[in-house]
Design a protein that fits this description.
The structure holds two protein chains of two kinds.
Chain A (H helix, E strand, L loop, with lengths): L1 E3 H11 L4 E4 L6 H8 L5 E4 L3 H15 L3 E5 L3 H15 L4 E7 L15 H5 L5 E4 L6 H13 L5 E7 H5 L1 E3 L19 H12 L4 E5 L1 H5 L3 H11 L3 E3 L14 E4 L6 H9 L2 E5 L5 H4 L10 E6 L13 E4 L2 H14 L6 H16 L14 H11 L5 E4 L3 H9 L8 E2 L10 H11 L5 E6 L10 H6 L5 E6 L4 H10 L15 H7 L3 E5 L5 H10 L5 E6 L23
Parallel strand pairs in A: 2-3, 2-4, 4-5, 5-7, 6-7, 9-10, 9-12, 10-11, 12-13, 13-14, 15-16, 15-17, 17-18, 18-20, 19-20
Antiparallel strand pairs in A: 1-8
Helix pairs in contact in A: 1-2, 1-6, 3-4, 3-17, 8-13, 10-13, 11-14, 15-16, 15-21
Chain B lengths: L1 E9 L4 H11 L6 E6 L5 E9 L2 H13 L3 E6 L5 E12 L4 H11 L3 E5 L3 E8 L1 H10 L5 E6 L3 E4 L8
Bound molecules: thiamine diphosphate (TPP).
The site of thiamine diphosphate (TPP) has 20 residues of chain A, from helix 16 and helix 19.
Chain lengths: 564, 163
């Protein structure tokens, strides 16, 4: 039997077991929407802005490990989606975005709602396709899912002209996919792994530094085993939080620009650095010339181009993190080498001295609400079990510092692109994927306004997200930089004319609470999480001038932190 | 250092702009770029000349390899190779210069492929530096136009860029 292109798209998504399709209709995708209407296997989630469709799919992907799927129309639908595609690209999130396109005959004519979607998205996708024949739809979608989810994951765009979705052909799910030009490496080089293990065991002042790659590659369990076997200190990047339990003694906290004193000092003084699924981002290394001056570096990554990109490494291992870590564990178990207990004891003594500084302490006697306090209470009340999404700014850094993530895929934030507006739609994707879980979106009064229209989507699909707004009446992170580096000239960083958030969320049909006193923080959080089937938005009026500490100014080394 | 990178690319629309886009987005320079389909119609072969430190060239080849449309590549300059470029030059050729230009063209083993009362058009192939040298010797006469194809290259002997 022949199906239309639109029916093939929908059948394919069914066969790929896609649960949710995040989208927004328009002329170029009307055939596809019609095909969606006639089935109920793939659930379409109607967002209120295409940017939110991509972030929601992204949150779904980050919290489940499965690809997020998006459908938008041509022209403005596609351009609105670009921010979310770029966000997913920077954090290597598997996503397939189907964009409608004007009919083939009109392409290139500046037709109504035409943009070159393939051209616009090229620099921010892992790959993209323009489908020119209905016979290619199934195979192209198969390739798109394959590319998006294998190797170093990433978003893939499939642009489908409207006439192609009307044309007909036979459909069969393509069981296999082969691409001569795409063969992601999985297994690391055995010789290199052996050398790396030798170097690791020979370390006097070792440090394990891991990033988002461990989470994307489902390598947490192996990482925990390896770290415990070795007894070495470990730090995670902003993207890597949760890969190693934050409540464990061997964990030194996050590293980098707003990392802990102990993590950054241990990095700086290490003689052997074991980097796993991390990419030596500038927010992590500080000044690369001053980065880990004494360390020999082992780097495990699935993407060869991540290796020696910013920092030259001694032992590169290209492969899937989990496979490589398992091989390392096996070699350690079967071999007779052991970590140097004496050296390690001294190293830990030094680290404990750094840790004793308690760099995350803050004023707990203040009369105003301290943002750090809200996060500590959030952690307590959710028993550390919530999925926490965040936007971008100070609140993001405080979330990373004070919410102790013990499990992977619980901390969902835009680390690479730093996209304000990410938090709420991402939380929708997370809550849809985990209907019974506690999902909190920690945000600022600036960021939340970038996608606030999604409160309507939350209402429509009854998503009981808890929105934790740290309202400092400032674009806080911008204000902090202006305080430190621009002589307190607060140019356009004050958030004027804020809406009455309580009234606003009530207008959307949700529960709103404003909290102004530290004594009311805990009660409000308890009440919010008590409302199991409602979205509750808490507007915490926090200390206006609180800063994120520690901080490494751009261009400084990891040992040159501003502490308070 | 100057490097000649040879790439087998899927012969698909957009593949070339992925390569060119990568260079502009990451701030790498392209000195020349040539591309044409191979004996296997689904593949194009692209030759690209670029300059950079060893670290930059390493990143360039890794980033190129990461492009889904890139099937295979080699850095020709890492081994023995042959480099050729085609050049067409149109020069003003009047009076005494006609003889002189003809002589120089012969010395460089070029061919005069079009003649008018006042111009010669010369065809020449060779490595880039030979073509540069020829242009330098022509300074006495007026060059009206130069067209260069960009470098093509192939490795010597058994070695090669094969599927
Ligand atoms: C889309 C976008 N625009 C601008 C920025 C730059 N920026 C980074 S943090 C920040 C301030 C965020 O303010 P708010 O959401 O109130 O959070 P706070 O820092 O106060 O916690 C801005 C403007 C950004 N990251 N994303």
């Amino acid at each position: 039997m022949e199906l239309t292109g639109a029916e093939i798209v929908v059948r394919y998504l069914q066969d790929e077991s896609v649960e949710f399709l995040f989208g927004y209709p328009g002329g170029a995708v009307l055939h596809i929407y019609d095909a969606l209407y006639k089935q109920d296997k793939v659930k379409h989630i109607l967002v209120r802005h295409e940017q939110a469709a991509t972030h929601a799919a992204d949150g779904y992907a980050r919290s489940t490990g499965k690809p997020g799927v998006v459908l938008v129309t041509s022209g403005p639908g596609a351009t609105n989606a670009v921010t979310g595609i770029a966000t997913a690209y920077m954090d290597s999130i598997p996503m397939v975005v189907i964009t409608g396109q004007v009919p083939t005959a009109l392409i290139g004519n500046d037709a109504f709602q035409e943009v070159d979607a393939v051209g616009i998205t090229r620099p921010c996708v892992k790959h993209n396709f323009l489908v020119k024949d209905v016979k290619d739809i199934a195979q192209t979608l198969r390739k798109a899912f394959y590319i998006a989810t294998t190797g170093r994951p990433g978003p893939v765009v499939v642009d489908i002209p409207k006439d192609i979705t009307a044309a007909k052909c036979a459909y069969q799910y393509p069981e296999t996919v082969t691409m001569r030009s795409y063969n992601p490496t999985v297994k690391g080089h055995t010789g290199q792994i052996r050398r790396a293990v030798e170097m690791m065991l020979d370390a006097k002042r070792p440090m394990i530094y891991t990033g988002g790659g461990v989470i994307l590659g489902n390598g947490s369990e192996s990482l925990v085993q390896l770290t415990r076997t070795l007894g070495y200190p470990i730090t995670n990047t902003l993207m890597g939080l949760g890969a190693y339990p934050a409540t464990d003694r061997q964990f030194l906290g996050m590293l980098g620009m707003h990392g802990t004193y102990e993590a950054n000092m241990a990095m700086h003084h290490a003689d052997t650095l074991i980097a796993i699924g991390a990419r030596f981002d500038d927010r992590v290394t500080g000044n690369v010339k001053k980065f880990c001056p004494d360390a020999r570096i082992i780097h495990i990554d699935i993407d060869p181009s991540s290796i020696s990109k910013n920092v030259k490494v001694d032992i590169p291992i290209v492969g899937s993190v989990d496979a490589v870590l398992k091989e390392m564990l096996r070699l350690i178990k079967d071999g007779d080498g052991k970590p140097d207990a004496g050296a390690l004891k001294q190293w830990w003594a030094q680290i404990e001295e750094w840790r004793a500084l308690n760099c995350l302490k803050y004023d707990t006697t203040a009369e105003v609400i301290k943002p750090q306090y809200v996060l500590e209470k959030l952690y307590e009340i959710t028993n550390g079990n919530a999925f926490v999404t965040s936007d971008v700014g100070q609140h993001q850094m405080w979330s990373a510092q004070y919410y102790k993530f013990d499990l992977p895929r619980r901390w969902i934030n835009s680390g690479g692109l730093g996209t304000m507006g990410f938090g709420l739609p991402a939380a929708m994707g997370v809550q849809l994927a985990h209907p019974d879980a506690q999902v909190a979106c920690v945000t600022g009064e600036g960021s939340i306004q970038m996608c606030i229209q999604e409160l309507a989507t939350c209402k429509q699909y009854k998503l009981p997200i808890k929105v934790i707004t740290l309202n400092n009446r400032y674009l806080g992170m911008v204000r902090q930089w202006q305080e430190f580096f621009y002589d307190r000239r607060y140019s356009n960083s004050y958030m004027d004319s804020l809406p009455d958030f309580v009234k606003l969320v009530e207008a959307y049909g949700h529960v709103g609470i404003q909290v102004t006193k530290p004594g009311d923080v805990e009660g409000a959080l308890r009440e919010a999480f008590g409302q199991k089937d409602r979205l509750v938005f808490i507007d915490f009026i926090t200390d206006q001038k609180e800063n994120v500490y520690p901080m490494i100014p751009a261009g400084a080394g990891l040992n040159e932190m501003i502490l308070v | 250092m100057r490097h000649i990178i040879s790439i087998l690319l899927e012969n698909e629309s957009g593949a070339l702009s992925r390569v060119a886009g990568l260079f502009s987005a990451r701030g790498y320079n392209i000195e020349s770029l040539t591309v044409a389909v191979t004996e296997e119609p689904s593949l194009s072969r692209l030759t690209l000349v670029t300059r950079g430190s060893d670290e930059i060239i390493e990143q360039i080849t890794k980033q190129l390899n990461k492009l889904v449309d890139v099937v295979k590549l080699i850095d020709l300059t890492e081994g023995e190779h042959i480099e050729r470029e085609l050049m067409l030059v149109k020069v003003r050729a009047v009076n005494g210069m006609r003889e002189e230009v003809k002589r120089l063209t012969d010395i460089f083993r070029g061919k005069i492929i079009d003649v008018t009362e006042s111009t010669y058009t010369i065809e020449m192939t060779g490595a880039g530096d030979k073509l540069d040298a020829f242009l330098k010797t022509l300074t006495g006469s007026t060059i009206l136009e130069t067209v260069r194809s960009g470098v093509s290259g192939i490795s010597r002997g058994e070695k090669g860029l094969l599927l």
